[in-house]
Amino acid sequence: MKYFRTALTHPTTWALALLVTAGSAQAQSAEKGKVAFIKNGCWQCHGFEGQGGQAGLPLAPNTKPLAYITAFVRNTRGAMPPYSEKILPNADLADIHAYLQSRPAAPDPKTIPLLN
Amino acid sequence: MSDKETPEALPRRSFLGGVLASGAAAAASLSPTAPASAAEPAAKPAVLPPSAHGAAMEAGMPTDPARIDGKPGSDFMVDVIKSLDIKYLPSNCASSFRALHESLIDYGENRMPEFLTCMHEESAVGMAHGYFKACGKPLLTLCHGTVGLQHASMALYNAWCDRVPLIIVGGNDTDAAYRPPGVPTFHAAQDINAMVRDYTKWDDAPVSLQHFSQSFVRAYKIAMTPPYGPVAISLDAALQMAPVHPHGGQMPTIPRYVPTSPPQGDSGAVKEAASLLAAAAYPVIVVDRAARTPEGIALVVQLAELLQARVVDQGSRMNFPRTHYLSSAAAAVAHADVIIGLELADFWATVNSYTDNGENEGHGVNGTRMLPTAKLISINSRDLTTKANYQDFQRFQVIDVQMAADAQATLPALIEAVRSAISNERKVVIAQRAEPLKKAYAEAQVRTRAAAAVAWNASPISTARLVMETLAAIKHLDWSLVASEGNVSDWPNRLWPMEKHHHWLGRSGGYGVGYGAPAAVGAALANKDLGRFSVAIQSDGDLMFAPGVLWTAAKHKIPLLSVMHNNRGYHQEVMHVQRLANFRNRKVNNGNDMGPIGTSIENPDIEYHLLAKSMGWWAKGPIKDPNELKAALKEAVAVVQSGHPALLNVWTQPR
């Protein structure tokens, strides 16, 4: 985890990420994003809904900004392998972000009898 | 005349000879093609009166009805086995132990042990594994000494790593000059136990019946002395067949079994450990197989409360109540100044981290998770049985106070030593830890429930929803989670109110896939006798290694609720391949599946409910809508309560 943090707090990483994401912002499609989310194996650790689990952090709801996600995906040196632009183009990543943002809010656990 | 009556009335060989002779005569007299012979005397009767010898054979009582003189050696072996109160014998039949098999079911009347028909030796050993963890009693299994033991070997390795006692007996026709040629010779070896010697505690190849009785009792005793473990006996086919003979004027005897006391930690080391713990500002207790028995839980609780120390239960057994405010996540070690590990499988990984990120030429990156000044204490009986070849001893970790001893047996002395080491002033300081820890526990519970609520209504069904719907259906019963294979994000341990030893039986030990299904059936058998309700979270990949155990459960009426975590893939492996492709900057090839080629179990989907039904289970599925779970579980629970196994094929999220 400390490698993630190092990468994500480095100013160059953020600047690069913002440049990358600015160029692909107009291509965002939740529908395409769902396909890309599955095709690129994101679901394997984060679940089909991006809910996360023991193998991967939750990505939705409360999805982090595209710039953050992009910086993480491109530069991670932790348990999650990095996805280069060759493997996962910026446009697909933007679509995945849109898909994650489209996920419904989680119900309040207090309203779920089985969790109380 | 029944089969049972035959040997009492007549020697079987003579009886059959008589039947053949009279049958031939009768056939000749009734044949429509046989001409009436003019040469035959007309006055001769069709059936002659029996001779004096024949009459004696018909009416006389034989002195010895058996074809083999005396008591067969395998009957004596049954006497030995019965002396140890072994209740069941899961096994796949094989000719190399046919004599013992026959003795068990006929001479031994198929009781103590009862033969359970298995369809794979791996299933038989897996059943014995699960059975022990549910009730604390070892089982015996028989197999072919070569091909059967080869089938059984992965399950044996799991039992070895999980410190589970069981006795495996392999039939072997040793005498190369006289054994049958062909298949029995393919199935013979000089030393069958060599194959499993690296992951059994002890083995032997007895050459006389007296040797067998001593070896069997010794094997049981070694298996049942902590650290527990599997033991193997090679059983010669000729020894099973030969009659019992006196040796030196004495018939073979059966030694009395007397349990061996478990090893306790050295008193000096116990005192040193107690001083460190009593003086610690933030002690943490990490437990993995600390509670060998239900009594172990109470001891861990006593030590934790005495120190107000957080407890991290790594979960190879149910060591500490999840409902206790000192129950904590693994991250607790990060701030500890003293960490005591009780029967840990891997102390290195408890206090260090490893990141599989492809760096260092693919070796990944190591890191530490503990303070550099933290003191480490270990009590671990596995230190007494370390072997060289298989690497289950894990990475080397420097420990400050290390006891090669059984933790549960050492805890009473350690608790007393800690009590003595805590001054009255220190007691006040320690007591002040309680309130913040209670608050932290309550906050962690809220966070866990919030995480479980995400994707609560998703389809495929979230693993959190799966396990909480299951709990709701069984919580009014004396339930036992007998296995949870595949990764369900550990929701049962995070959300279920686990307090009793049988609430959670732990994992496979060696992570050999295929453990879950047979271990669940074996544990359910033990729980059946104890009046408990057994439930398993059954993953798809695990079940398909040897699904024949489903038939065994139905055949022997073993009640088990199997709720499938059917994520349609080998998810432990899915990410490995994805990770390697990314490291190499290549797009992974999924073929027509969702995961990388070779990791998915789809196209076609397996209809597990139909598979189970075909083997005599009540089953339902595939269930993809979370709103259908409650009703299906209610039906399934009712079936299990009626004494039968039931399976729900549930499509789930990956983890």
In short:
Chain A is an all-alpha fold and about 120 residues long. Chain A contains 6 helices and no strands.
Please describe what this structure looks like:
The complex is a heterodimer of chains A (116) and B (655). Chain A is mainly α and 116 residues long. Chain A has helices spanning 2-9, 11-24, 30-39, 43-46, 66-75, 90-101. The model of chain A is unreliable at 1-26 (pLDDT under 50). With 655 residues, chain B is of the alpha/beta class. In chain B, the strands form 5 sheets. A 6-stranded parallel beta sheet of chain B has the order 9-8-7-10-13-14. In chain B, β1, α5 and β2 (114-117) form a beta-alpha-beta unit. The longest helix of chain B is centred in the last third of the chain and has 20 residues, at 434-453. Chain B starts with a helix and ends in a 5-residue tail after the last strand. The relative contact order of chain B is 0.09. The chains are: A mainly alpha (116), B alpha/beta (655).
Number of domains of chain B: 4
Low-confidence runs of chain B: 1-41
The fraction of residues assigned to DSSP E strands of chain A is under 5%
Overall geometric form of chain A:
globular
Q: Which residue ranges of chain A are poorly predicted, with pLDDT under 50 across at least 5 consecutive positions?
A: 1-26
Q: Examine the coordinates and then state which fold CATH places here, giving the name of the CATH topology of the largest domain in chain B.
A: Rossmann fold
Tally of strands of chain A: 0
Biggest interface, CB < 8 A: A-B, 38 and 49 residues
Helix content of chain B: 25-40%
> Order of SSEs of chain A, N→C?
HHHHHH
